[in-house]
Backbone:
């Protein structure tokens, strides 16, 4: 951590500051320049409050050098984390396809789609039982009834299921869910993250729609600091000024994350754009950027889906996409489980 | 709602679409132009799924004309809502000052600050017991112990208290809290909003750091649709590309909100910038823009505050600010309670 | 164009508005609903001033249905435009690689790089003679001397050259330049665009760093409306709140542009991220998303480049990348010129 | 400037780097920590290329401590710059009102408005002769004819005039213009800035719609480094994700600029929101935030203005606003010239 001091800071104030920093178990190094004096802090600065330092009269700016995340930091854990979901692995050279409907609507719907996407190559089944909707008047999901339908489909097809949690109190309902998803709007629901950190289930952590990569890793850190290291990150688009797409898929986040963290990173091309016809090109792009997998909405009857139908592929479109993905995977040295 | 159709849409598809819309109880009006055909929907379109319409083969674009919020909509409720907190009113010509420390640290700290800000003109006391922090390693608040300290200060000073909730399960602890705050990161924690809608307590709803005004009003709608109409909106800065300030305070949101909704709107100038020296100018600016009140961090010893010290005023700075505010309030025809 | 009227608008005002719209040669269609009255405008609305309509007392909102661009609009020109640069074609199934140094530094440097990238598969040579730099104290390019060096390299290698113009008055110097680049900062330098529209040279139009796709196409329209239809669009990243990358490469812009316009679209992965190690993954991603080509910075000695060295590949890295691109191109049905 | 080195950097590489930095006339200070090694650079680092440093194998991150602007930097020029326009002063305790139509339409229009706003308290007259428009099909201004009309109004009313330049080659036409405006879209038209730096005319430099405060000051630096120190900054809104307002007026930029620079700062509340009914509240807010003046669009017949009519006040609304501003100015210790 680097503290730049104001030009007019007094010797006594400076000494007080250095004494206080030393009392936190950190070393200080002072560098005096013509126009500015700089204080370097050496040691574990993750607990130092930047706000407090900034508020001191003699401080001009404070710059953190060390990343504030530890468990998620590749510097401290150089090897890729492999998240194993009933034998289906995320991370390393593995590439996984998660597919299924946006919302669970009926047993028949889920089973039909599950069988179709499994045949095409999907290894996990997704589906929303609890749906976060901007409007209280929109369809909110089948809730516990929806979870039952998903668990039935798991039993019938053998596919592990991925579904979203919105409320800590629903956790008991998720006992047989294989991967618990935290949606973009809950990425900084810290109370929820802490509870999920106490489980030992894989967590699919979506990026908040206006959150930086560092904040995202800090949310992973919330889960990991409670002991659960099974975190899969999911890029799903960020909010920008561009109105033609619902969100802007930030694919450069993938190679950046591959440097910063050892956690697997997948991409959701369906939610990012909100348009079914963008799913194929953005899926191919995600593979090119180095993603460890994709989570794709597939619906047997998109125009009548209860929500987000606009972004769902039909099963035959999904099948066609998987064929094209396979050629690309070889270029990025990834292997899709078959 | 206006649907623009693709040029190559077939008569039969169009008829199917119109029949389906009519079956929802809506009327349709067709306008054929040279390069485009437009379908106008008349009636209550708040339940129509734009995503579904967008996904239809024959649809080019869908534009909502009616606002999707009802309870919060000024068109349907022209008069200002007045939120009465133990006799202190928000909305209309009233102007309220909420002040207090960022975090509750000790009984002595809270009482000292409460007495000082009350003397200067604050009518409500704020203070964080549960603190949402980006890092799991940062101070998380005194939690239930902090709430006790706040309630003690309420008893001693007679000031109603405002404090943040982060977890539905903590609701019983908030029984004697006067105004429950929903923080920016929980603005779209819909499960929490629904529960708060079932209470009859005033809710201070902060704007999410990347949420539009419409989404913010939809979150108010979540609370109001459950029967709780006592919602106070609080602008606290949005996320932009500018790094010099932590967030960009969006003061133009105030006159916009005054048109769109009847709910009171206050401003938090402390969190927006993250810099104490910006609190005074941005407070004056907020009054100019038409705010119904301010919520300001005050600390008796800012450099040693456990969190966000950089953005707190000292009591004497707060006192000085209140004097300047009073002159400005006359220009905007607001009356500060004294 | 759709005009929503205020509820309290008078018949007389409405009649005046409709008469005025009719006088512009447009037809009007009135749709009266319960809560709102909507006026549809049919005809060529590209000259109607939305600002003016918005300012009328009786108008609530105005929504444009038709795209405001004509020459660039795929609806009016369904076939792909092919821009032919001395036999190297952009658009359709063609894929082109443009490569070269960020800044022209010396004849030897440019020739060495040009020969290397040509051998690896680049068909056009890029290089900056006039450099737009945020700081007046930074290296501003070799200017006319730099142009001479590029033209010499063109003669020696036979590669057409692409270089940026910053000033209308420099146009005579660009007589032998094959493709004139308009940089992000000049995307809305309308006076420059109009002058370039009067030439018959291919123009490489970069997206402004905070411009929407529609504004970008309107800038292409400025060039095309003067008679020059040879416009190549270049996505180079937009400004967001994410600090780890200099800009966020918006790859979803590619499939969107392929729908909206018939113009070729290439991607600059070097400037977007500002990091050499992101160039390869983002190039592969761009191909996946459907780009018609790439413009890549290559430097024989990146650490000593006079500007933007951090984002340049070494020739051997570029060579390696081209090999990987070829496998991907088959998946998207593109053919790289060899 | 602080360079953080990678953990695995070799001694020899480090020595090479330090030697090279020393050869630039800078001193280096090395601080070795447990997990990172940090190199501090002392001296004038404004010419050091951060991109180059970042590209070195041994470098992890580079952080600039010193601001890159000099002439515009308050640290080096503590006193407020006062820009004197024919006796009307910007900066210090002075407050100026600039008013006039968006576009110059006719002699009668300009004279009528000029006389009205002068009577209400405006000291300078604004009006657009050359208009930057997103669409080539929109009204582009009366151009040189418009300038003539403005100069005639100046002669008749004695008010100095402010008008925008879009093309270096038009500079001779601006000989009798008092303040030359650089619009948001040209804020980084560096060739234009350099030419304006060679004049001795006051320059009104608007902020680019997605530019940081630092970039804005660097553009001021372009003008100042050529010898012209008469720069007035103008905040006019930045681009965010919020669609209800055309741009988000960033009023916190004002107190930040007051710290960072000695140049005067005014606000344009008309362009920021694009809505006439927001001009009054945002003008009052700008005064509260500490602005040195306002530039406001006034039109005698807003609904028929040729451009941007939606954001213009009528003369009587402007008159009413000025009265309210006066009360507020006393609170911020500003004096409006009368």
Residues:
């Amino acid at each position: 951590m680097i503290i730049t001091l104001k030009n007019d800071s007094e010797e006594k104030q400076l000494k007080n500051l250095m004494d206080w920093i030393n009392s936190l178990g950190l070393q200080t190094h002072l560098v005096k320049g013509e126009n500015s004096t700089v204080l370097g802090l050496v040691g574990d600065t993750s607990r130092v409050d930047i706000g407090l330092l900034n508020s001191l009269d003699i401080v001009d700016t404070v710059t953190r050098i060390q990343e504030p995340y530890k468990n998620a930091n590749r510097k401290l854990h150089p090897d890729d984390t492999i998240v194993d979901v009933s034998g289906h692995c995320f991370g390393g050279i593995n590439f996984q396809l998660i597919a299924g409907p946006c919302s669970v609507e009926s047993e028949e719907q889920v089973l039909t789609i599950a069988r179709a996407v499994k045949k095409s190559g999907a290894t996990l089944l997704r589906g929303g039982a609890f749906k976060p909707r901007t409007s209280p008047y929109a369809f909110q999901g089948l809730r516990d009834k929806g979870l039952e339908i998903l668990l039935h489909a798991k039993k019938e097809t053998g596919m592990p299921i991925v579904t979203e949690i919105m409320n800590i109190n629903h956790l008991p309902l998720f006992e047989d869910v294989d991967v618990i998803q935290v949606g973009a709007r809950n990425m900084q629901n810290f109370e929820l993250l802490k509870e999920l950190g106490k489980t030992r289930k894989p967590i699919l952590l979506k990026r908040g729609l206006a959150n930086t990569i560092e904040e995202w890793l800090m949310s992973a850190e919330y889960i990991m600091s409670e002991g659960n290291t099974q975190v899969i990150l999911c890029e799903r688009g960020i909010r920008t000024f561009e109105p033609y797409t619902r969100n802007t898929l930030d694919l450069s986040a993938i190679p950046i994350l591959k440097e910063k963290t050892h956690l697997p990173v997948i991409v959701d091309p369906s939610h990012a754009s909100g348009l079914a016809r963008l799913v194929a090109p953005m899926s191919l792009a995600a593979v090119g950027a180095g993603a460890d997998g994709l989570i794709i909405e597939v619906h047997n009857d998109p125009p009548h889906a209860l929500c987000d139908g606009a972004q769902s592929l039909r099963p035959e479109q999904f099948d066609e996409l998987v064929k094209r993905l396979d050629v690309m995977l070889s270029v990025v040295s990834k292997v899709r489980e078959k």
The first helix of chain A runs from residue 11 to 23.
